[in-house]
Design a protein that fits this description.
The chain is of the alpha/beta class. Helix content is 31%, strand content 24%. It has a single domain, classed as Metallo-beta-lactamase, Chain A (4-Layer Sandwich), CATH 3.60.15.10. The chain is globular and about 55 Å long. It starts with a strand and ends with a strand. The mean pLDDT is 95.
């Protein structure tokens, strides 16, 4: 059976995934920069070596075009990652999004020092992208089928990663745990609600990996969908302060951390 690992990394406390199949591995989001990307590449190689006796070829999917999820892409390419999947919107807007985000990181006192570790030229953050067509595409890792679903709402470039045989969904920032979901200028609450309704329609799914925070269940996603739907009816369609929700119980919230999902 394929293995699914979730790595929660700073800065931005972002969740990245590694799915280790019998033939290929998939990294879900490259993280905020070169250091996290190299960590993911080396960890993916180690996991496939342990599972299959050899390093797997690695593909990458980007859940959306916010810097903390994609600024490691070029470093992963340098480490030998093969195909980079993302929405067509990401492919079209990648250059402009990188320029805007890098400038914002350099201007923000909280991220200024981190931005110094990033390439000086935003063009050095770019990779060749294989666009996921509208609807969904399928990738075979050998013993694990992966579906990429192009949705929207948190951004104009949202993709969720569904592992239908394992009951796992990586939602990107369409779901956030522990902190409020971020609804910025590129958000559309109506689309966001419809996207979460689509995610909830995956009847086999019981484990949901949010873009930030600990792994959540179906009830959590339904509650966050209801929260966003409520604000949609009361507010403008973007740049609103959404409420935070936390998973009940005790959870490891240290950073950095890694967990292997239990899929029995």
């Amino acid at each position: 059976m394929a293995k699914v690992n979730v790595l929660s990394l700073n800065p931005a406390r972002v969740n990245c995934g590694i799915v280790t199949g019998s033939e290929r591995s998939l990294i879900i989001d490259s993280g905020p920069g070169p250091n996290t990307a190299r960590l993911l590449a080396h960890r993916a190689a180690a996991l496939s070596e342990a599972a299959n006796g050899r390093p797997n070829p690695i593909d990458v999917v980007t859940t959306h075009d916010h810097w903390d999820h994609c600024f490691g892409n070029s470093a992963l390419a340098a480490e030998g990652a093969g195909t980079f999947f993302a929405s067509r919107s990401f492919a079209v807007d990648q250059e402009a999004s990188s320029w805007i985000a890098l400038d914002a990181l350099r201007s923000d006192p909280e991220t200024h020092e981190f931005a110094r570790k990033l390439p000086a030229d935003p063009a050095d953050l770019l990779v060749e992208v294989t666009p996921i067509e509208s609807g969904h595409s399928v990738l075979d890792l050998g013993d694990c089928r992966v579906e990429f679903h192009v949705l929207g709402g948190h951004s104009t470039a949202d993709v969720v990663v569904r592992l239908p045989d394992l009951g796992v969904v990586f939602t990107g920032d369409l779901v956030e745990e522990g902190d409020p979901p971020q609804a910025g200028a590129d958000a559309a609450l109506g689309d966001w609600v419809r996207s979460l309704e689509t995610v909830l329609s995956f009847s086999e799914a019981s484990v949901f990996v949010p873009g930030h925070g600990v792994v959540v269940d179906r009830d959590f996603v339904a509650r966050q969908c209801a929260d966003i739907d409520g604000y949609r009816t009361m507010s403008a369609d973007a740049e609103v302060a959404l409420p935070a929700r936390a998973m009940p119980g005790e959870h490891d919230r240290t950073f950095p951390r890694e967990c292997e999902l239990r899929l029995d």
